[in-house]
Amino acid sequence: QVQLVESGGGLVQPGGSLRLSCAATGSLFSIYAMSWYRQAPGKERELVAAISSFGINTNYADSVKGRFTISRDNAKNTVYLQMNSLKPEDTAVYYCNAKRTREVWGQGTQVTVSS
To answer: CB under 8 Å to 58, separation ≥6 — which residues?
Structure first.
C-alpha cells in the first residue's frame, strides 16, 4: 500500500511561486494515477491537477490552468506541483492523492498567499 508525504508549502507573496512535492512509498508508484487537491476553510476539497499512470495525461482545474504544472518522477517515487503566479485565492491546504484500486491521501501542506 502506498503512503504519501507532502512538503514544500509555506507563505508566499501574490505573484510568487512554490513547488510542492509528494513523496510516495511502495514499489508500484508508476501505475498509480496521482493528483493534487486543495481545501480552503469552509470550502469543499477540490481537484487542482492530476497526472495519469506513467505520466501520459494531465488535467487541471480551470482556475489554475496556465499557472500550475503537475509532473512526476517515477524513479524518485515523487509527484510535483509547480505553482506560479500565485493568487490569494490559492490559499489552502494542498493534499496529494494516489489512486489505483483505492484512494490514498497525504497529510497535506499549507500554502498561504498573502502580501
So the answer is: 49, 50, 51, 52, 70
Query: Hey, is 69 helix, strand or coil?
Result: strand
For residues 40 and 54, give the distance between their C-alpha atoms in angstroms, rounded to a whole number. 30
Distance from C-alpha of 97 to C-alpha of 107, rounded to nearest angstrom: 10
User: How is the beta sheet containing 68-73 ordered, strand by strand?
Assistant: 4-7, 18-24, 78-83, 68-73
Q: Side chain identity at 13, as an amino acid letter?
A: Q
Q: What is the pLDDT of residues 25-83, one digit of tens each?
A: 977 888 899 999 999 999 999 999 999 998 999 999 999 999 999 999 989 999 999 99
Residue 55 in 3-state DSSP? helix
